[in-house]
Design goal:
Layout lengths: L5 E9 L3 H11 L3 E3 L2 H4 L4 E2 L9 H17 L9 H5 L6 H42 L15 E9 L3 H7 L6 E8 L2 E9 L3 H10 L3 E2 L10 H31 L2 H21 L3 E2 L3 E9 L3 H11 L4 E7 L11 E2 L8 H10 L10 H15 L3 H18 L6 H24 L15 H5 L12 H29 L3 H6 L4 H19 L8 H14 L3 H9 L3 H5 L2 H29 L1 H22 L4 H34 L9 E2 L10
Helix pairs in contact: 1-9, 1-10, 3-5, 3-9, 5-8, 11-12, 11-14, 12-14, 12-23, 12-24, 13-14, 16-22, 16-23, 18-19, 20-22, 23-24
């Protein structure tokens, strides 16, 4: 239930063994390095850049270029394995950059052709739009065309020049529609863009074009023009797809080589990152960092084997007085099933080293809150099924790991809904199941609950208040454990989450229950109230004078301005008491929102059934399906957010400060 114990390694190895030791450290992948300047007071110098074959910037840039090219073809390289580490080779950065330049040049040529085709497609689509908009009734065509964008020419030219005309306008946004043949002359109508008229006129002059009047029997070529345009656009679209495939093939043909280069670059990059934390003396290399305590012996043996015993290793325990807890990285070691709830914890912050990891407790608390607010067997199964589909879609994509964990959280929430739905006897808002605890729907709708303990809405509210008190008390206990482990004795006694704060809260809870049990007509006796609330409040007054004496620079400073110091202490005491009383009261009552959302969920289902009763047949079923879908979407989201809020602000704030540093060792699986 606590963060993983860590130990600090301080190591010295010979320069000649540094490469083998680096490989061993990368293979183990358990060390989070500390800059040697933080522990050596400047007596050691960073490892000279000349000892590194290529700079980290060059390797990273080349790796990113290679990765980017692979991504353009839909190829995602996998993280290096230990086998890749064994067969790694040095990468010639200049050679590979030149190779990538060649591939990019090939792709650029293909892309340029694609852009040209795309421009032609856009122009032809513009013509087709104009044809569809204005029409091309040829009997009405005159030398001055009646719409502003399209230029039209009707004429004849020698049949032998037909192929020449087709070839000439092939790469222009123009369309030549044959009208017929008379002797050795072909009659055509030419549709083009007005902005290309000068070029079109030169082409027509070259094929012997002569303008003619259209024979009276020809009415319209609008349909033929549209067909021709559609056919030409289809041809260009097919060519565009072919070029797209060619661009991807440029990368696919080199995929094996590029992936091999990427792996070697990634390994080299990790080597550089490790060695960037090395410091050198005349013949030795020094490095230091944190590792989990459980790996101490294995890492010791690994380094000794890599250096043939030519090393000096010193281990420091993280709980030593010379090491501040805030300097120790934090690793949360939980079962895989708790990964979604660990995500919720890390989103809030990392616990301080050596304190309680709340993940195992967040799971039951979060699911209980969610289930009480969203209790339905059928809707819970739908949620779980949706989460399972999400997991199936995302589990193979490492870059969407967070989304996959969210889907697992949805599955857990769905199962919680099923469990509490069985307790309350709810299946898609219907009482088709006998409740194992009490009938939630029956209470809200004014019927019996089937329980002698929970009979009305006030009893439901009481359940959530009891639950809230238990959560707050658990948070206080965790805070006391954390303060004891970190030896913060003053805070353990005087903090609002310490022993005196807990004493006041317990007294307030007892007094509230006493008042309720006496029908709001009597409080505990004065003596009891003083012992429960008054005495710890008075003891809390000693906190400020103690702070003043402890932090004063000199005895005379502590005695200066005693009246002002006393007034300041009194004000601090009053403010802290107000924070304790109002804070604990609001924290406790805040849990009533659990009952509130549960009641709202039932009321919404009752409303949906009332709407369904106003219709009949298929319409009634449609209303029920859409209503349940709406409830699952809105109420499920609301319940998830409120459960998260209660954990963060009513539970975590009692003991969790989120100041820890995440443990991020350099390994083959390190994030890019």
């Amino acid at each position: 239930m606590f963060t993983t114990p860590m130990v600090q390694l301080f190591a010295v190895v010979l320069q000649r063994d540094s490469e083998r030791v680096t490989e061993a450290l990368l293979r183990e992948g358990v060390m989070q390095f500390i800059s040697t300047s933080e522990v050596a007071d400047g007596k050691l110098r960073p490892r000279p850049a000349a000892q590194l074959k290529a700079s980290l910037t060059e390797i990273t840039d080349l790796r990113q270029r290679t990765e980017g090219l692979l991504h353009t073809a839909g190829i995602v390289p996998s993280a290096p394995s230990e086998a890749d580490l064994d067969r790694r080779v040095a990468v010639d950065v200049q050679k590979e950059n030149a190779h990538l330049d060649g591939l990019e040049a090939k792709r650029a040529g293909i892309r340029e052709r694609q852009r040209a085709i795309q421009q032609e497609i856009l122009k032809l689509e513009d013509i087709r739009r104009q044809v569809a908009l204005y029409g091309t009734d040829l009997p009405e065509v005159t030398q001055s065309v009646r719409h502003p964008l399209i230029a039209m020419e009707i004429g004849k030219f020698p049949v032998g020049n037909v192929k020449r005309l087709d070839s000439a306008i092939k790469h222009l946004p123009a369309l030549a529609v044959p009208l017929g043949q008379e002797d050795d002359m072909a009659h055509y109508v030419l549709i083009s863009m007005k902005r290309d008229s000068e070029q079109i006129q030169k082409l027509l002059a070259g094929v012997g074009w002569t303008e003619v009047e259209l024979p009276a029997q020809v009415r319209s070529v609008k349909e033929d023009a549209s067909k021709e345009l559609t056919a030409k656009l289809a041809t260009l679209g097919a060519e565009q797809k072919k070029l797209e495939s060619e661009a991807d093939d440029v990368i696919r043909q080199e995929a094996d080589h590029l992936k091999e280069v990427w792996v070697n670059l990634r390994v080299s990059e990790l080597f550089h990152r490790i060695q960037a934390n090395f410091a050198s003396s005349a013949r030795t290399v020094v490095f230091t960092g944190w590792v989990p305590a459980a790996t101490e012996q294995r890492l010791t043996d690994t380094i000794k084997q890599a250096s043939a015993g030519r090393c000096y290793l010193m281990w420091n325990q993280a709980d030593g007085r010379e090491i501040a807890a805030d300097d120790v990285p934090v690793r949360l070691d939980n079962p895989k099933a708790l990964a979604p709830f660990e995500m919720l914890v890390s989103n809030f912050g990392m616990p301080r080293y050596g304190t309680i990891d709340p993940t195992p407790f967040v799971m039951p608390l979060y699911l209980t809150m969610f289930g009480l607010m969203f209790a339905d067997v059928g809707q819970g199964l739908v949620l779980a099924a949706l989460g399972a589909l999400g997991v199936r879609a995302l589990r193979r994509d490492e870059k969407k790991k967070g989304g996959c964990q969210l889907c697992w959280l949805i599955i857990w929430c769905g199962l919680s809904s099923v469990f509490f739905g069985l307790l309350f006897g709810s299946l898609f808002g219907m009482n088709l199941i006998r409740p194992l605890w009490f009938d939630f729907h029956g209470i809200i709708s004014g019927h019996g609950s089937g329980s002698s303990v929970v009979r009305d809405v006030y009893d439901i509210l009481s359940i959530t208040v009891y639950f809230g008190i238990a959560v707050i008390v658990l948070g206080l206990l965790f805070n006391w454990v954390n303060l004891i482990r970190t030896r913060q004795w003053l805070e353990l006694i005087f903090d609002k989450g310490g022993l005196l704060g807990g004493w006041i809260y317990a007294g307030g809870v007892y007094s509230a229950f006493y008042l309720v049990s006496h029908e709001y007509k009597a409080f505990p006796s004065g003596t009891v109230l003083f012992l429960l609330v008054g005495l710890p409040s008075l003891l809390l007054f000693a906190k400020e004078p103690y702070h003043l004496l402890k932090h004063a620079q000199t005895p005379s400073e502590a005695k200066a301005n005693p009246a002002f110091a006393a007034l300041n202490a009194a004000m601090e005491w009053i403010v802290e008491l107000l924070e304790i009383f109002s804070g604990y009261l609001s924290n406790t009552l805040s849990f009533m929102r659990v009952a509130g959302l549960g009641i709202a969920h039932v009321c919404l289902m009752i409303s949906i059934f009332a709407l369904a009763d106003m219709t009949s047949g298929v319409f009634s079923i449609v209303v029920l399906i859409l209503g349940n879908a709406l409830v699952i979407a809105l109420e499920g989201l609301s319940a998830g957010i409120q459960a998260l809020r209660l954990n963060y602000y009513e539970f975590f704030t009692k003991f969790f400060h989120g100041t820890g540093r995440l443990y991020t060792p350099i390994s083959l699986k390190s994030e890019l």
